[in-house]
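We modelled the chain as a single entity of 208 amino acids. Its sequence is:
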Amino acid sequence: MIFFLYTILALFTFMFFLMLFLPLSFLGVAIMTLINGPVQLFYLLTHPEVRKNHALEHATIHVLEELVPLKLSGVSNPNGFIIQGVSDPYLVLQAAHEAKRRLLSGEKDLAVHPRCGTTSVVTGLVFAILFIVFSILFGLFSFVNLLLSLVLGAILGSVLSPWVQRHVTTDWRVHDVEIENAELIIRGWSVHGVFVHTRKGDIKWSIR
């Protein structure tokens, strides 16, 4: 009986500290997200070469996923983009050319992908804004505020992400992007992905 009472007491103590400190830790996360999220979005908004490569990356993944039953991912930079989850450079290069053709023929939605990292950024921003607002309005030490912010952030983030991708993080107008080649990226003993090199005119984009 005494052991049972100590167990219940320990459980309630743990729940108390959890409900007390968890919202505080998430508040710190929310504040950092409010700083880092806009910085990431502003970088993409002010770097048109990355936005176009990002659109090509998404479109290439769409084309590849129509051909192979895989869930692929990618990363874009000013010099091109990486497709992860596939190890055939020729297949990726052909898909990239097809992606560019289809984007320019009017399939603008190919520039948007549901698994884009933009969704995480937008979801984090929405959560951060809601959590801080709820904390100010209804009390800082509220576990309910935390759960409500997480749920609404996930819902609104998935809804807003396609719009943000279309207007901020990608640019489907890739007529001035030249696809040069694709090469396999090997790190250590494993294949990291395929890098597709792009360029604009005669001047290759640089991150410097």
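As a brief sanity check on the tokenised model: DSSP finds five helices and four strands in the chain. The mean pLDDT is 81.
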